[in-house]
Amino acid sequence: MQKICIIGLGYIGLPTAAVFARAGFDVVGVDINAQVIELLNKGEIIIEENGLPEVVKEAVESGKLRAALVPEAADAFIIAVPTPVHEDHRANVDYVVSAVKQIVPHVKKGDVVIVESTIPPRTIDDVVAPIFKEAGFDPEKDIHLAHCPERVLPGRILIELVENARIVGGLTPEAAEKAADVYRRVVTGDILVTEAVTAEMSKLMENTFRDVNIALANELSKICGALGVDAHKVIELANRHPRVNLHQPGPGVGGHCLAVDPYFIVEKAPEEAQIIKLSRDINNSMPDYVVDQVLRMTGDIEKPTVALFGLTYKGNIDDVRESPAIEIVEKMIENPRFDVRVHDPHVRGEQVKFPLVSFKDAIAGAHLVVVLADHNEFKELDNETLVTRMARPVVFDTKNCTGLSSESGLTVHKIGDLRGL
Ligand code: SAJ
């Protein structure tokens, strides 16, 4: 086992390629984006992820990692392309299907084929295996087909790729073992071998567990808003119980995982998946809830200037996919009541459809600052700067991250603590 071909050089495929190259494999990364290919072959990347630029540069310079527009023969193939959802929330596995079709002509008997992309339960059995069958392979005997879901947290990808336990679900027990061998070369965490469908379902339930728990926290913040209680204090105190772990409320749930994966379960078992569906609805309701609170905070001003801080779906990353902050910004821009200014030090202008301004320009003369992402820059916001430069120094911290409090002329509201509003 020497050569690996990785399809999809995004947030997962690229670090995976770099980690395998670092471990001594010959890695060819494939992507449809010519710019990504050209840059990568120069050792450069466009993704923001801790430590990734250095690892990629070293891997390319050592000759172990290169990029190409089309796949080539290898001992193992790893598919790490996105699985978006259709308008009606059904999974769109088109990219996975086309990646599989792309590699089929290069796969030979005995090769390992791994799908890392998150997929609905039974996709390996019902969608991927039949493509190989049609191409003349016996998917159970000629190749080793497996689903090994990625489980890494953006911001910690390089650490978690190596240290996290890895679920390896094979179409057959032998396929699972062969795929596990690939990961054993780079993973220090446990390798958990199972069937493909169990791996598919486990991955979806990990993210669903988190989504449902965040929905509970968001519901708690609304309840506390209605009853005049500080939800953040409630969470802090309740979590001192040894078996309680309430999550944190926020402006909604974003990213390409939590906001998407639970729907893959709902799609396959709509009657049974009640709490999962309701949790999605609760988390989806948070952007409107935030805008409603902004209206309450600025209702007495004719055309308030509102500075919106942070567009990414969570702090210290540059990923705006499914970000509730983007939804909030768009709703506020559409509303003629507001004069909106948007600032995010981690996001480039071309990533979004509206103008971005500097921190200084955003707060000058503003009547409200709304913090929508927990970037380090916002954790360091200081009372004095806001009080001197804003027209009315009020902050709405939807991530409970700033450490600011109502004192010295500043008023601070939090998503879970709207007392005084
Ligand atoms: N969030 C809250 N409250 C919380 C925790 C998170 O509102 O208490 C929000 C975040 O702000 C963000 C969203 O949830 O908008 C998702 O963020 P996240 O940090 O929980 O997770 P992701 O989407 O970055 O990564 C998740 C991880 N899954 C789990 O933690 C179970 C990661 O390990 C997976 O690999 C990844 O999904 C994936 O690709 O599936």
UniProtKB/TrEMBL annotation:
Which GO terms are recorded in the biological process aspect for this UniProt protein?
A: polysaccharide biosynthetic process
Protein's recorded name: UDP-N-acetyl-D-mannosamine dehydrogenase
Q: Name one Pfam family in it.
A: UDPG_MGDP_dh_C
Give the domain of life: Bacteria
Report domain UDP-glucose/GDP-mannose dehydrogenase C-terminal positions. 307-404
Listed PANTHER family: UDP-N-ACETYL-D-MANNOSAMINE DEHYDROGENASE
GO MF = NAD binding; oxidoreductase activity, acting on the CH-CH group of donors, NAD or NADP as acceptor; oxidoreductase activity, acting on the CH-OH group of donors, NAD or NADP as acceptor
Q: Which InterPro entries match?
A: 6-PGluconate_DH-like_C_sf (IPR008927), NAD(P)-bd_dom_sf (IPR036291), UDP-Glc/GDP-Man (IPR017476), UDP-Glc/GDP-Man_DH_C (IPR014027), UDP-Glc/GDP-Man_DH_C_sf (IPR036220), UDP-Glc/GDP-Man_DH_dimer (IPR014026), UDP-Glc/GDP-Man_DH_N (IPR001732), UDP_ManNAc/GlcNAc_DH (IPR028359)
Q: Which residues form a coiled coil?
A: none
- Key words of the record: NAD, Oxidoreductase
From which organism does this entry originate?
Domibacillus aminovorans
User: Belongs to which family?
Assistant: Belongs to the UDP-glucose/GDP-mannose dehydrogenase family.
